[in-house]
Amino acid sequence: MTLTQMLAGFVRRHWRAYAASALMLLSIAVLTTWIPRQVGHVVDGMVAGTLRGQVLLTQLGLLIGAGALIYLLRVGWRLALFAAAYRLGQQLRTQLYARLTLQGPGFFQAKRTGDLMALATNDVDAVEMAAGEALLAAFDGSLTLILVLLMMTLGVDWRLGLAALLPFPFMALAFWRISDHVHLAWQSSLARFSLLNQHVQEGLASVRTLRALGLTRHNGQQFHTLAASAAESSYQAQKWEAAYEPAVGMTLSAATVIALGLGGLLVARQELSIGQLTSFTMYLGQLIWPMFAAGWVLSLLERGRAAWDRLQPVLDAPLSLSDEGQASMPKNAQIDFEAISFSYPEAGRQALHEVSLRLAPGSTLGLVGPTGAGKSTLLGLLLRQYEPSSGRITVSGSDSVASLALPELRLQSLRESIAWVPQEPFLFSASIADNIALAKPTASRAEIEAAARQAAVHEDITRLPRGYDTEVGERGVALSGGQRQRVAIARALLAAAPILLLDDALSAVDTGTESQILTHLRELREARPECSVIINSHRLSAVMDADQIAVLRDGRITELGSHAELLARAGWYATQWRYQQLEASLA
């Protein structure tokens, strides 16, 4: 869909606002073209001595009244038209945000956050201006041009009118050449602004790392280079936009010279009155706005087209995950991983290879193995962040007749049934209480504190100056890594979802705190026997009480059993267990 088609559809949906604006602009154009003609009559009457006294005051009063009415109408069309244009900006931002929230991790791996933020700000603004100011200027300028030309040729003198139009084809040719350069310049400007936006976003997010590594000066130099590049590209776009004005000025100057020369000759021959020449000269002056409007419209449309060329691929990008399922998550769900294989896009090897596992209702499954073995990938497939390359994940429960594959479930139902604590928990710029209550906004303070106790973070919170009302800052910058993990665990426990996923969520806590959290998890399972838990951890003590432990290596299950069974096999698990126990005793 082109920008023109999109704007046409929007105008059809909001035709009342545009029709009201058009009617007011038509009235303005009629009054604007009437004023010079009226001035011409007044001048001729004063020269002839037939217009004086009360009649002259009446004519002057009409001119003043027309000017006041034009002012009111101009305020009116702005209120009507820009209200509609702002609705388009709101609609595009809402549509873009909704689309982004439905995309999976694969989409965001190919897109940069700063670029997406630029789309929602600069690019949407450019399209919004095309729907508002550009359409207005196009309609107003075209209408004024037609009426003025009619008054010049039919209302004054057709010979003078045609002669004054001789320079205008040259202006049209200049506009055509300039508009191509404007489009390319704005494409470059928007792209460079995105790069600048991305650099700022990354720099602010990693400011502590940059300071620790002594890279703030280098980062500042990069910012200076990108800012200079963005400023230069914007300057080039503005420079080409400024080229419209000389083209208009030269054309109108040439038209004025022709009109005055020919008009003076016609007056000398008494084929044209002084009042008519005065009216014609005023009409030429009124052509300034339609000509400038033409340049302004072309500039706004080219800017909007460049922005739309960047926006449309994101709005039309296919969803990385389909949401066509109709079923809800069954109660007391049993989850089966059936010969799951998966490869990341452009990866040289499989992340998972024919993995088969079962998570019975109310049981705990431990996932262990070296870094890069595929543990987090398995949890990502359960969350439907990705789709398996082969095999399938099914769920069955006490209220389901047959097992259902994950794509048969509504995404909302699936994700509401899972409380997930990722390796790098995300905290919002809000209070600790608000972050814990994210999954249950109606939770009371007592429920929030109970979840914090289960996550072994209550004591840490009470030592903060404002306790649970402490603002954590962007991404939880005011808290330590272990505190952030435990706040995220408290949030997951408060959600009371039937499936709990801990994706290496205890890596930043000490063994004593880990022991407290695991004890509370055992108590949770006793209080809620239907709750199923999957724990992915490098620390084997975190999974030793699991009903079943799977050892993943290079994407394959190499060992499977309980803690005691795996120790008896004397494999990777047993070796790692002895090493970690020795390390803990030395510590």
Your description of this structure?
By secondary structure, this protein is α/β, with parallel strands linked by helices. It has helices at residues 3-13, 15-48, 53-102, 105-110, 113-156, 158-164, 168-205, 207-212, 216-242, 244-268, 274-286, 288-316, 375-382, 411-416, 432-436, 445-454, 458-462, 481-495, 511-527, 563-569, 572-586, and strands spanning 334-342, 352-359, 364-368, 390-396, 404-405, 418-421, 499-503, 532-536, 548-553, 556-561. The chain is built from 21 helices and ten strands. Strands 6-7-8-3-9-10 form a six-stranded mixed beta sheet, with helices on both faces. The two termini are 64 Å apart. The relative contact order is 0.08. The mean pLDDT is 81.
Entry summary:
This protein has 587 residues and is of the alpha/beta class.
The class by helix and strand makeup works out as alpha/beta
Give the termini separation: 64 Å
**Sequence of strands across the biggest β-sheet:** 6-7-8-3-9-10
What is the global morphology? elongated
Number of helices: 21
Q: How confident is the prediction overall: mean pLDDT? A: 81
Radius of gyration: 36 Å
Strand content: 5-15%
- Tally of strands: 10
Helix content estimate: 55-70%
Task: Give the low-pLDDT segments.
Answer: none
For the biggest sheet, the summary is: 6 strands, mixed
